[in-house]
Design brief:
By secondary structure, the chain is α+β, with helices and mostly antiparallel strands. It has one domain: HIT-like (HIT family, subunit A, 2-Layer Sandwich), CATH 3.30.428.10. It has five helices and five strands, in the order ααβββαββαα. It has a five-stranded antiparallel β-sheet. It is globular. The N and C termini lie far apart (about 40 Å).
Length: about 160
C-alpha cells in the first residue's frame, strides 16, 4: 500500500485551540517564515498552512475586523486589488483551470478564524477532486508550502 505523508497537518490536528489570530500574528512577522507572498497598503496575502489545493492563498486586511462592512472602501478596494494581483501570479506560475474565490463569514459558515475577515483564493484543475477524499477522507496536496512560497515570490 502506498503512503501519503503530510507531517505539517499534525500541527493542525493537535492544536485545535489556537489562542491568537493567525492574521494579526503574521502581518509583522518574518515574511518567509509565515509564508507571506505579497503586501499592499491595507492588506497582505499568505499561503494557507492547511491548503485545500496547491497555491491556496488567503488575503486579509491588516485591521482585525470580523466583517467586510467594518472595513473602509479604501481597505476593501485594496484587498480586491491584492486578490487580483495574486490571481495573476497564480495564473502565470501554476496555470490552474479555474478558481474558488470567497470568504467564510462566521464560525457556522466554516470560518476557521471568524474574528478576522479574509478571502480565500483556491486554484482548481480539472480532475483535482479524485477518489481520495471520497474513499479515505484524504486530500492530496502535491507541493510543499516552501516550494509554493518560492514559486509565488519569484520575480
Amino acid at each position: 500500500m502506498d503512503k501519503l505523508w503530510a507531517p505539517w497537518r499534525s500541527k493542525y490536528i493537535y492544536s485545535r485551540k489556537i489562542k491568537k489570530c493567525i492574521f494579526c500574528g503574521n502581518r509583522a512577522a518574518d515574511e518567509e517564515l509565515k509564508y507571506i507572498v505579497a503586501k499592499s497598503k491595507h492588506s497582505f496575502a499568505m499561503l494557507n498552512l492547511y491548503p485545500y489545493n496547491n497555491g491556496h492563498v488567503m488575503v486579509s486586511p491588516y485591521r482585525h475586523v470580523n466583517s467586510f462592512e467594518l472595513l473602509s472602501n479604501e481597505e476593501i478596494l485594496d484587498m480586491m486589488k491584492l486578490v487580483n494581483r495574486i490571481k495573476t501570479v497564480l495564473d502565470k506560475r501554476l496555470k490552474p483551470h479555474g478558481y474558488n474565490i470567497g470568504a467564510n463569514i462566521g464560525k457556522v459558515a466554516g470560518a476557521g478564524f471568524a474574528g478576522h475577515v479574509h478571502i480565500h483564493i483556491v486554484p482548481r484543475w480539472t480532475g483535482d477532486f479524485n477518489f481520495m477524499p471520497i474513499v479515505s477522507g484524504t486530500k492530496v496536496v502535491s507541493e510543499s508550502l516552501d516550494v509554493m512560497y518560492k514559486l509565488l515570490r519569484k520575480k
